Amino acid sequence: MRAYYKNTWINVVKDLGSDVHKGLDEAECNVRREEEGNKLSLPYKKALLNLLLEILKQRYLYVFIIVIGFFLYYNLYPMAIITASLILFILIMKIYHDVFKEKEIEILQNLNTTQVLVLRDGIEKLVEAESLVKGDIVYFRKNSIIAADIRIIDSEDIKVDERGVTGDNFIKEKYSVKMEDDVNSIGEINNMLFRGSIIKSGQGKGVVVEVGNNTQLGKLVKIINNTTEKKDLIIKKLQNKVLNIALCLILVHVNLMLVFPGKFTDKVVLLAQGIFAITTILIPFIMIYYGKFIRKKIYEEDKITINNFSVLELSKNIKILFLEKIGNLSKDELYVNKLYSNDQIYSFNKIDSGDINLRRLIDISVICNNAKSNNDNNWIKGNMYEVAYARYGMEHSIHKGSMDVSNRRKFELHRSSSKDIITTVNKTKRGYRANSRGDLESLLSSCTHILINGIERELTSEDIIKIKLADLNFSKEGLLTEGFAYRSFNYEPSSYENIESNLVFVGIIALENPLFDDAREDIKNILDDGILPVIFTEDNKLQAEVFGRRIGLISNEDQVTSGVELEALSDEELISVVSKARIYCRISPEMKNKIVSLYNSDGYNFVAEGKTLGDLSLVSLAKVGIAKESFSMLLKKIADIHTEESSIKAFFNLRKRYNEVEEGIKRGITFYTLIVLSEIFMLNFQYFFTSGNLEMEYYIALINLIIVTPVILINALYGRGEESNKKLILRALLFIIIPSFAIYFLKESYSLIVLFLLGGMSILDIIINCRVFSKGNFKGLKLLLVTMLGYALSIVAVLFIYKISFTPITLIISAWLLFIFLLGGLIIRKW
């Protein structure tokens, strides 16, 4: 990178073997494209074949195949066909689900498919971004999306938004001249354009210096591709649990077959029907629906979008929270608290707006300000500082709209990271004035005069000491500060002049960034859970120390460190400092990545949040990656969750939701076990009472697919809570004994009675043990009504197809057994 930004564009073009007037020829482009293409490798993109291969790794698939083979071997074709249809349905559903997730990633393909105006063989032509090569001469204008890393050759008022790559949250002005000094981060390079940036104004041309995965954006994406993809642990864990339970139930069935009279070899159909009962419940459908329901519920109630369902379980083992101060512990807003001018400190509500110094101070804050405002409805939009100044001006009848009209802006100077000052040049009634605000140290170094009681005089060392002392006092109170200055011209200055010199210092405005009311409590809860919070902030070191003590995170100044201090350390010294630091202030994105990587290499499970593409590596390395208020679709898709709320609140909500999900899964598995156990006992009793007469596969399919599948789902979603082992045993006995009585007393129509009883008991169990009738729970009630409708239609269909009729005694016994189940269920529930 240094070879490009610290060199003239003429030498860069020459080193790349290109020609600024003709560009490359097509033949050379083809050769270079074969060596290194400009296609960006997007994360987690899988072909359909890869998806199929992943599905083939699932253990349950082979269990189904063995079961189908068993049915076919013994000529049990109806069961084989039904089971094969189920597994086919499950596979189609899973493939559709995974392909749908993949299609969400396809929206990122615009990183590869933008069109670029390029010079080749002396002719300007439009080409796809993918066909760019190193050495191409490209043109760009307003709204162009930069498709490669480019060294600027010609610049005409170019301003670029590169937040997505560098993370710097302001529009940058770019030039073609070489840079003499080294830089600490790519955000300080002002003669290059990076892939993924957007031209906001101006036009120019440049030479492509890096393509594809070697661009800065490509390196970020490559980090993601090289990290291990997090698997859907909860789903995998659930699949294994259900598979183990199913195998245990098969063993129970085999043992019952051995216990009941009759030769085991004569009970092949009985064994098959028991296995059929175990496998014909749509568990994958339940898991997908349950996952979607939980995701939607969390989004609606907690404002969290979950991309990786495993994040619920991953949140259990977190040891470190990497957090930004603003948005988690302090509000995303500032308020003017104090002002300094005329060698005095003023409280925000005790100023005389007629004082010429204070008036000038507020004027500059409102004029040198890019916030958007509407005087009619007091609407203001912009960054925190600018909104605070505009709002404070409005409170003193200094309206931004009116000031912009009377102080028409001519231009704004480039803002660099090394000299953090914003300067605008405005046309006033008396001429032209440069209005500057920003970092106090940088501003004072550009000031030669000071405004005292409306009179300009030379700035002395004594004045500087007073100013810095006032700033120090503000910092000790945890206030954020900016200095303000101006310079008057009797002619229209040019942007090429050294305008930020010979400035007149006016004063300081100190702003308060209010903490959330529960910030201290949040930190206490994190520490009480055995988790270490590590905070990043843009405060200076003194302000950060005040903040850290206020929230109860630090006890001494050694626990706060700044980016400047870290840059000067060796690797060994860095590790020593990082082990003690709890708050990092004003550190570069590269240093933040380095700090997080140190914890990652030591095996710590941590949470990290990000807002820009520059935070991709942090989010992808984290056990739980959080995208915050991100305009970057790539970051949103890579992160485990996306939220616009506090990451602390989101983290604790995830932990709470995990317990709910675990309880729900346990309830669903419990009911699955109860109902299948009931069916196994029922089949064995039926075989015993009817001398081996078995014709149950269609009834089992109806019960399990139409009734039991939604009932398990309802139990998982709306169950009342965890039950004791005694209650579970009693519920199981009810499900086992009552159908067995029905088979004993109603041998002639046992198949239909079992369908009637099992379906009825399942629905009654929902009414007793689930919260489907709670206020506002329309979804649960709707699901219950759908289940009841399926139950009724199943009975009607069986009566119609098999022309079976109920006798009075059959109806009386069935109704009596259902009443006993209802009564027993209520007793168990209240016990």
TrEMBL record:
<dbReference type="GO" id="GO:0030007">
    <property type="term" value="P:intracellular potassium ion homeostasis"/>
</dbReference>
<dbReference type="InterPro" id="IPR023299">
    <property type="entry name" value="ATPase_P-typ_cyto_dom_N"/>
</dbReference>
<protein>
    <submittedName>
        <fullName>Cation-transporting P-type ATPase</fullName>
    </submittedName>
</protein>
<dbReference type="GO" id="GO:0005886">
    <property type="term" value="C:plasma membrane"/>
</dbReference>
<comment type="similarity">
    <text>Belongs to the cation transport ATPase (P-type) (TC 3.A.3) family. Type IIA subfamily.</text>
</comment>
<feature type="transmembrane region" description="Helical">
    <location>
        <begin position="669"/>
        <end position="690"/>
    </location>
</feature>
<feature type="transmembrane region" description="Helical">
    <location>
        <begin position="808"/>
        <end position="828"/>
    </location>
</feature>
<feature type="transmembrane region" description="Helical">
    <location>
        <begin position="728"/>
        <end position="746"/>
    </location>
</feature>
<dbReference type="Pfam" id="PF00122">
    <property type="entry name" value="E1-E2_ATPase"/>
</dbReference>
<keyword id="KW-0812">Transmembrane</keyword>
<feature type="domain" description="P-type ATPase A">
    <location>
        <begin position="111"/>
        <end position="223"/>
    </location>
</feature>
<feature type="transmembrane region" description="Helical">
    <location>
        <begin position="268"/>
        <end position="290"/>
    </location>
</feature>
<dbReference type="InterPro" id="IPR059000">
    <property type="entry name" value="ATPase_P-type_domA"/>
</dbReference>
<dbReference type="InterPro" id="IPR008250">
    <property type="entry name" value="ATPase_P-typ_transduc_dom_A_sf"/>
</dbReference>
<dbReference type="InterPro" id="IPR023298">
    <property type="entry name" value="ATPase_P-typ_TM_dom_sf"/>
</dbReference>
<dbReference type="GO" id="GO:1902600">
    <property type="term" value="P:proton transmembrane transport"/>
</dbReference>
<keyword id="KW-1133">Transmembrane helix</keyword>
<dbReference type="InterPro" id="IPR023214">
    <property type="entry name" value="HAD_sf"/>
</dbReference>
<dbReference type="InterPro" id="IPR050510">
    <property type="entry name" value="Cation_transp_ATPase_P-type"/>
</dbReference>
<feature type="transmembrane region" description="Helical">
    <location>
        <begin position="60"/>
        <end position="93"/>
    </location>
</feature>
<dbReference type="InterPro" id="IPR036412">
    <property type="entry name" value="HAD-like_sf"/>
</dbReference>
<keyword id="KW-0472">Membrane</keyword>
<dbReference type="GO" id="GO:0036376">
    <property type="term" value="P:sodium ion export across plasma membrane"/>
</dbReference>
<dbReference type="GO" id="GO:1990573">
    <property type="term" value="P:potassium ion import across plasma membrane"/>
</dbReference>
<dbReference type="GO" id="GO:0000166">
    <property type="term" value="F:nucleotide binding"/>
</dbReference>
<feature type="transmembrane region" description="Helical">
    <location>
        <begin position="696"/>
        <end position="716"/>
    </location>
</feature>
<keyword id="KW-1003">Cell membrane</keyword>
<dbReference type="Pfam" id="PF13246">
    <property type="entry name" value="Cation_ATPase"/>
</dbReference>
<dbReference type="GO" id="GO:0005391">
    <property type="term" value="F:P-type sodium:potassium-exchanging transporter activity"/>
</dbReference>
<feature type="transmembrane region" description="Helical">
    <location>
        <begin position="242"/>
        <end position="262"/>
    </location>
</feature>
<feature type="transmembrane region" description="Helical">
    <location>
        <begin position="783"/>
        <end position="802"/>
    </location>
</feature>
<feature type="transmembrane region" description="Helical">
    <location>
        <begin position="752"/>
        <end position="771"/>
    </location>
</feature>
<dbReference type="GO" id="GO:0006883">
    <property type="term" value="P:intracellular sodium ion homeostasis"/>
</dbReference>
